[in-house]
Amino acid sequence: MSRIGKLPIAIPAGVTIAVSPENVVTVKGPKGELVQAVDKNITVTVEENVCHVTRPNDEKENRSKHGLYRALIYNMVYGVSEGYKKVLQLHGVGYRVELSQPQLLNFSLGYTHPIYLLLPKEVKVETKSERNQDPLIMLESADKQLIGQICAKIRSFRKPEPYKGKGILFQGEVVRRKAGKSASK
Q: Which CATH architecture has domain 84-170?
């Protein structure tokens, strides 16, 4: 058995899980609603406050999907009850970000042009710029995959580089620094 797949998923108060005959799992909670299609070989059952994910046999394909779908459903349950939060910081001279419209981020990252990023409505965004501190972007969503994808997109605008340590980093992330060119003797 898959160590992850056989673990039951505890359903907190205020969260409901519904499984349709087409094997589509819908999770509703205070932070929103998420939907995930599950492979036809994997069975999802809900009993009282616990959800179980089972597989029919030990074929390689079924074993690989068993833990995957259990983890996806757990992430959905956690997302609609608690929510996921990511904080990015822009480290570099002149790097700025502002929220020009409710879901439109405007980046100034040292290029000759500004970069605009339109965020989906499922993501709540907040920016914070204080004097003598790096600007911060706070993202919050119920969907773990979506928030991770948006963070990856934002980081791709200016990846952290090892020589000066500039770029877009997660808050608390440490960039391993390299020594630059050394002077010839």
A: Alpha-Beta Complex (3.90)
